[in-house]
Amino acid sequence: MRSTLQFGRFNYPWRGDRVRARVMGILNVTPDSFSDGGQHQSLEFAISHAEQMILDGVDIIDVGGESSRPGAPPLPLAQELQRVMPVLYALRDQGPAISVDTYKPEVMREAIIAGVDMINDINGFRAPGAIAAVRDSDCGLCIMHMQSDPQHMQLAPSYSDVVAEVTAFLRERIEALTAAGIDPRRLCIDPGFGFGKTVEHNYALLKATGQLIAELGVPLLAGLSRKSMVGAVTGKPVEQRMAGSVGGALAAVAQGALIVRVHDVAETVDALKVWQAGTNLQR
Ligand code: 7PJ
């Protein structure tokens, strides 16, 4: 039975009665978004944000240097390394698991040297060299589905059956990774909310959480924090989507998601604690 997710220094049961849903906190290291003080200031800001997430009870910190919001241009390799690597080294021994959000094989290799526990690839390890970069490590691998690429994905998302197509994509990537000799216990899957999907596609996938897990036999990570699918239902702008995002995280966990990727760590941790105390989660 493959009933634990094994990644880096960590081991999470994801089937049976010892399951506890985990919170992945989003740490964006993108200087443009909050400061004009350049490299040093963005490092300081990232570290203090991470320290707060640790106080708030985060399980995994997901460090990303490239904005993958719709229409965003790609970030050159050297800049991504410059942003992300100092943060990975600074956070490696602070307690939580460390993940890096990247689709570049060169960043994956450097991050593995720095000792990250997980690589979170919005591109599903499709880049040439991505599988080779991660094969001989023990880090976890989050395989996300994306239609098209960040610059074009929201122009005209189109599926004849979104759940079937995302399932088939994830199955193919699981097979590609395991065919290269990668232990399936290192893998988790992610339907990729907002990545080449309309609001209807996103909710069809959220409702299919249990089906994706059952069909693919791999734990699932759900990332819908502050996304437009939350705004579409609540009518709220991005800065007022916290409660809606917590509701979405609970909907995913109720259907068997193991990890939720969120901006609002404290609120999500509290919601999951009460959720867990008030339910008998059996999967
Ligand atoms: C996701 C991600 C997601 C995973 C981003 C944002 C956009 N990685 N990276 N899943 N989203 N695995 O956070 O709004 O949904 S960047």
Please give a quick description of this structure:
GO terms for molecular function: dihydropteroate synthase activity; metal ion binding. The protein is α/β, with parallel strands linked by helices and 283 residues long.
How would you explain this protein's 3D organization?
This protein has an 8-stranded parallel sheet. Strands 1-2 form a two-stranded antiparallel sheet. The chain contains 11 helices and 10 strands. It is of the alpha/beta class. The longest helix is centred in the N-terminal third of the chain and has 18 residues, at 38-55. The structure holds ligand 7PJ.
Going across the major beta sheet, what is the strand order? 8-7-6-5-4-3-10-9
Task: Calculate the terminal CA-CA distance, rounded to whole Å.
Answer: 13 Å
What level of helicity do the residues show?
40-55%
Task: State which percent range the strand residues make up.
Answer: 15-25%
Gyration radius, in Å: 17 Å
Number of helices: 11
Sum up the overall morphology in one term: globular
Number of strands: 10
Uncertain ranges: none
Structural class: alpha/beta
Average predicted confidence as pLDDT: 94
Fold blueprint:
Elements: E1 4-7, E2 10-13, E3 22-28, H1 31-34, H2 38-55, E4 60-64, H3 77-91, E5 97-101, H4 105-114, E6 118-121, H5 130-135, E7 140-144, H6 162-179, E8 187-190, H7 199-207, H8 209-216, E9 221-222, H9 228-234, H10 242-254, E10 259-262, H11 265-277
Parallel strand pairs: 3-4, 3-10, 4-5, 5-6, 6-7, 7-8, 9-10
Antiparallel strand pairs: 1-2
Helix pairs in contact: 2-3, 3-4, 10-11
Bound molecules: ligand 7PJ.
Pfam families: Pterin_bind (PF00809)
Protein name: Dihydropteroate synthase
Function: Catalyzes the condensation of para-aminobenzoate (pABA) with 6-hydroxymethyl-7,8-dihydropterin diphosphate (DHPt-PP) to form 7,8-dihydropteroate (H2Pte), the immediate precursor of folate derivatives.
